[in-house]
Amino acid sequence: MAKTSSNKTKEKKIDLNDYKYYNNRELSWLDFNFRVLEEAYDTTNPLLERVKFLSITSSNLEEFFMIRVAGLEEQLQAGFSGVDISGLNPRDQLMKISQKTHKMVEMQYNCLENELLPSLEKENIKVLKVDDIDEEKKEFLDNYFQTVVFPVVTPMAVDQSRPFPILPGSGINLGVELEDEKGETLFAFIPLPTIFPRFINIPSEDGTCLFLTEDLLKMHSDLFFSGYKVVEISEFRITRDGDLSIDEDDARDLLIEIESSLKERKTGFPVKLEISKNMGENLRNFLLNSLNLRSDNIFEISSLLDLSSLMEIANLEGYDHLKFEYYSPQPSPSFYGKEGIFKVIREKDVLLHRPYESFEHVMDFLRQAAEDPQVLAIKQTLYRVGKKSPIIDYLIKAAENGKQVTVVVEVKARFDEENNIQWAKELEKAGCHVVYGLVGLKVHAKLLLIVRKEEGGIRRYVHMSTGNYNYITARLYEDIDFFTCKESYAQDVSALFNILTGYSKPPTWKKLGVAPTSLRETFLQWIDNEIDVVKKGGKGKIIIKVNSLLDVSIIKALYKASMAGVNVKLIVRGICALKVAIKGVSEGIKVRSVVGRYLEHSRIYYFENNGLPKLFISSADLMPRNLDRRVETMIPIEQEDLKQRLIDVLNLYLKDNFKARELQPNGEYKRSTGKKSKIFIVQEELMKEAKKKFRKFIKKQEVDKFNFPKLK
Predict the structure, then answer these.
(1) Which end of the chain is less crowded, N or C, counting CB atoms within 10 A of the terminal residue's CB?
(2) Strand partners, 210
């Protein structure tokens, strides 16, 4: 009793509301992007994969400024001085962000100029400068300019009748200083056309010779300004506020409101300016005076602007030896060769782990439903589908085949709004009932419900996932898919669709945890359960795999669990506001982040439950936006073999000693140290296991290969 009383006294002395116990969201995200940048430096990665990682850090950073920095700048302008969970006000955050991002940009260009470009040149992939162009190459470039580029490019003058133009965000622009016949200084701009590749591939017998479109325009700049002297021409890039301002309460038609707001994204206020380091004083001053940016948000660049365009080099054909070895997602032994996917699901629940196993099974599930005369209705949520989508084709086909098709399309999915609006219109045209999300909430849950008439009556089949219905990213993102026809799951999913499409109050959920109504409480309940187990003399253990951990109530609960003696292991890819190794608070918590070939995207939750483990997968991260402002689901996995499979997956992530970085007490992330008898990379191991599992299955039985005729 005395010991328990002492523990309670100690616990009371610790104020978990203290700012010192939490990391800042924005700085934690920047730390994640540094981890991606490390992959660009890592010489154990193939060269073009390193180029790809560098490109990703640039596009990541661009989106960060468009959304996160833009929001902080607005708060600063509005005079907001409140603090976040780490005790930083907007001004403090912007100052620290500036310090980190300037260091990041410096490291990006050091990687490009001192490592990647020289290595590419050794492989005969050259990015040529104007001085490198011989007569033969010049003839090709001149012809390309005259026939392809020149007719499209539009120079934009600036004078009394033509004020400073609203140049689109994120694109490359050329600033031009001119002199007229009177010797007066004038300014103009040339936006680079975005319909062409950034890198022009010049025919060459000696490897690949690339030339930048902006350098081509510089070579021919006189043709744009006949009668004027070009004093200077230099590139710059503006990043603008990209968050849509949508007044949902006042929007009679959400679709029209979002389409209107998308136009604002191109003209939002500037939040970052990148300029060439060699830009002259006149042009520089003209830009700075016109854009009115804080000096913290101005970056001088020594090489090519917009490193995201390096993806063009990373995707060059004919250089497979400089890329990761090709991996074909493996068929699942549960589905492969079976004549009917519904029969398989009736026999047992099925789990897929993509991209190690094939997303084709998910598409085949929907394809068979669209064609099956016994299927009466299909209901699906769509968040990010992509520009091309077999999923949409199957839904349209189902509607054409007379099935009741209901699709909840989230038209507010950031940066996918245009795609989703287009798909919504296509689906409506085909006769589908389309719902454009909910006012005040984003529908982020990944759900597919199929209603089928069978001998015993109506049966419902359900697919739930941690990832989107996007067949392109399904090969790049790591996710978990779950199929079942158990009535308890189906009832919950049906009830949730009734809420999304009509007027219906949330029921008492039989299986699912659902945000924003009960998901946070469900998480807290299971964390508290582990604390109770320890208090009763048992061993408590929690393993969580998520993309982000930011919610204060969840972090507090995890701190309390650690203080009670629960062993907490967290696999957090990106933002982590929780701090480790705080004496008396988080000594029992370990945090690691895995960054590798595939984007870690699944959310898996494990609670030891006194020897009777509870396993869940979810569409939700542990962030306020997921728990309060989105429709999310958490799905219990109850079939014993599937539970064990998830446990095995989590253990593999905890075993990684090469691509995993451990969170340190000072907030830094470091690769695991100490002697390594053998390098263990979780993603490579999962690829090997999937291949081994399928080959073993094939050897055991004869299989009808109608599902995968082009099996690799």
Answers:
(1) N
(2) 127, 201
Q: Which two tokens stand for residue 65?
A: 């400024």
Q: Are 49 and 323 in contact (CB under 8 A)?
A: yes
Structure tokens at 694: 């399928």
Report the helix count and the strand count for the chain, using DSSP H and E. Answer: 21, 27
Query: In 486-540, which ranges are E strands?
Result: 513-515
In whole angstroms, what is the distance from residue 238 CA to residue 242 CA? Answer: 12
437 pLDDT band, cuts 50/70/90, is: confident
Specify binding-site residues for Mg(2+).
384, 414
Q: Which long-range contacts (C-beta less than 8 Å, at least 24 apart) are formed by 100-103?
A: 100/27, 100/30, 101/30, 101/61, 101/299, 102/299
Do 170 and 58 share a structural domain? yes
In-domain check, residue 234: yes
Identified catalytic residue from 353, 361, 444, 463: 444
d(CA 394, CA 396): 5
Of 448, 480, 507, the domain-final residue: 507
Q: Over 90: is that where the pLDDT of 166 sits?
A: no
Q: Are strands 199-202 and 442-443 parallel, antiparallel or unpaired?
A: unpaired
Same domain, 210 and 77: yes
Bridge partners of residue 635, in order along the sequence: 617
Rounded Cα gap, residues 312 and 24, in angstroms = 34
Q: Which residue has the higher pLDDT, 700 or 643?
A: 643
The DSSP call for residue 132 is G
Q: Which residues in 81-111 are b (16+ Cβ under 10 Å) and which e?
A: eeebbbebebebbbebbbebbeebbebbbeb
Per-residue tokens: 663 = 């969170």
- Average pLDDT on 598-619 reads 97
Residue 378: which residues within 8 A CB-CB, separation 6 or more? 366, 369, 370, 395, 398, 403, 404, 405, 406, 448, 449, 450, 451
Sign of CA dihedral 467, 473, 475, 478: negative
The CATH number of the domain holding residue 86 is 3.30.1840.10
Give 531-576 pLDDT, tens digit per residue.
999 999 999 999 999 999 999 999 999 999 999 999 999 999 999 9
The pTM of the full predicted model, rounded to 2 decimals, is 0.91
Three-class SS of 326-369? CCCCECCCCCCCCCCHHHHHHHCCEEEEECCECCHHHHHHHHHH
581: left (phi over 0), alpha (psi -120 to 50) or beta: left
For residue 608, what are the domain limits? Answer: 514-697
Any idea which residue has 């994969």 for tokens?
A: 49
Q: Mark whether 444 is an active-site residue.
A: yes
- The binding site for ATP comprises 60, 477, 573, 601
Structural domain count, the chain: 3
CA distance 297 to 288: 11
